[in-house]
Amino acid sequence: MRRFVRAILVGTTLAGGVIVLGAPPAGAVDAATDAEFRAAFADVNETEINLTADITMDCVSGGFLRNSATVLVINGDNHKIDATGCGVQLMLQLGAGLLTLNNVTLTGGAYSFSASIGGGGLQSNGDVTLVNSTVSGNAVTNTSTGAGTAATGGGLLVPGTLMLINSTVSGNQTSCPACTGTSSASAAGIAGGTMVLTNSTVSNNTASNAPNTFGGGIAGSNLTLVYSTLADNTAATGANVGGVAITSFGSVVALPQNGMNCGSLSAPTASNGFNFSDDTSCSFTDATDSENAGSPQLGALASNGGPTQTRLPQSGSPLIDKIPTGSCNFNGVTTDQRGVTRPQGSLCDIGAVEVAAPAPPTTSPPVCPAAALPAISSGTLAGAEGVVAVVPLGIQALFRRRRRGAPRPSGGRARSLVTWVLVAGVAVAMLAACAPIKPPGTTPGC
Known about the structure:
Elements: H1 2-9, E1 11-14, E2 17-20, E3 29-31, H2 34-42, E4 48-51, E5 55-56, E6 64-66, E7 72-82, E8 91-93, E9 99-107, E10 110-113, E11 117-118, E12 122-124, E13 128-131, E14 134-136, E15 139-142, E16 150-152, E17 156-165, E18 168-170, E19 173-175, E20 184-186, E21 190-198, E22 201-203, E23 206-208, E24 212-214, E25 218-226, E26 229-231, E27 241-242, E28 245-249, E29 252-254, E30 262-263, E31 270-271, E32 276-277, E33 323-324, H3 325-328, E34 347-348, E35 387-390, E36 398-399, E37 413-423, E38 426-437
Parallel strand pairs: 3-4, 4-7, 5-7, 6-8, 7-9, 8-12, 9-13, 9-14, 10-15, 11-16, 12-17, 13-17, 14-18, 15-19, 16-20, 17-21, 18-22, 19-23, 20-24, 21-25, 22-26, 25-27, 25-28, 26-29, 27-30, 28-31, 29-32
Antiparallel strand pairs: 1-2, 33-34, 35-38, 36-37, 37-38
């Protein structure tokens, strides 16, 4: 109904139809420079942008701004949008249009202002979906000197619905260094309304340098986790997650820095099973959950395959082989963050990464010692079958051949001795009767 009303408001009726005012949606455009991307992102009718190179912000022009209700897809092709050194917010969508970012990295946003602010990497009033993408190395700093102010969403600020699929949010920061009283720094990684993370990683984000810090990784309203990894985020309250209602399956929340994993949760946690935590603050209490279960033994954030960095469970990790095959494909998930098939063995792993099954051992064929041969002098041997080779005089050889009509000897392979005679000045090999030659030693397979 709302879409219909919107159409009526922006159009005029003619002969029973509705003509929408303004230009039709633009087609896909390529962007390789700041100017090309800036123009396409600002175009209210643009629907698709394909990055053909890294986009390095022209600092003089400021952050990238959009104010549109039109759905926009940005295909990054593994490129990045980078504001490093500019000291500004990277991207801002003031309109309600859905943004989808596919295979792109947002980095270098550094939003600093003397008011409650957020979204160093991206702030959007519309919904946002990230697929195979990274939000890393962005920051929000509130420079206020009073109380009751905040810095939030160092990486992302999306008050509506945010979906992360096969994506990583890492190394983002929020701070409020001169704030006092109830002021806070929060959600260094993600600040959102309804947040759904599938096969995604939130790691090494830091909310610090403020009177109050919470939700170092994620803060907001509602958080759904499916096969995701939240680890090594920093805040005094809810180092990994703060102020949300959690619904979770097959996810790990662990290694909190400067506080407990979860803090100030707005509702009891709804566990769909097979979650892991190294304390009890997230209330993973389903019979299949592992709570207060020790170290998850995660490797550092690194390139472990796929378009985004991940945290690979190490050998012996309690995350490996914990989910029965019948429960593996929760919500239709059949791969991990990197695209590796789940399961790799007989069971699935907890978290964003499915550890690959070890390759079967390879064996080399045995090396069999050669049999020692007696010296053979020239002459014709009894039982010889005939001439089998013409070679230089004086060579000794071992031929694997049975005499015609003779039964195969048992207990070894049949071999034949030859000798060499001089016929018309040419050395001729004469094949002797076959006899079994036992292989020396006991080498298996020889």
